[in-house]
């Protein structure tokens, strides 16, 4: 049983472990272990995680069982578009998937931004499982991009949006 709560700096080690595990399980088949290792090392350093946890206008949530963190979600207001929140990360430990953890984290994130009208997410193009998950949550494809995750990544993605209604 997991409960969703706001992340703190004491969670950084477990968050890094979860991101390493989920990134390799998700993206190794598409990009290879070496490319995924570069992504994890570049995007998920302890300092990067701490910065996300402390960022104003953002929310970093974890699903905590009391023994382990089974999932995480990170979203922040999107400065390029008014009243839009960007869902940057939503990952569930592979051994804990299909238990509703991702849905629970997402449900909590939806309530964290009362001024937002739209939630946006970028999904790596080969990750059809994630696309299906977001479609079940009410997201639809609105655009495509050539550089997912970082400039010059060479990783194409789709952009999905969901209208937030309170």
From TrEMBL:
InterPro entries: Acyl_CoA_acyltransferase, GNAT_dom
N-acetyltransferase domain location: 2-165
Source domain of life: Bacteria
PROSITE patterns per record: GNAT
Keyword terms: Acyltransferase, Transferase
Xref: Gene3D superfamilies: 3.40.630.30
Any one GO molecular function term: acyltransferase activity, transferring groups other than amino-acyl groups
Name under which the protein is recorded: GNAT family N-acetyltransferase
Organism: Rhizobium daejeonense
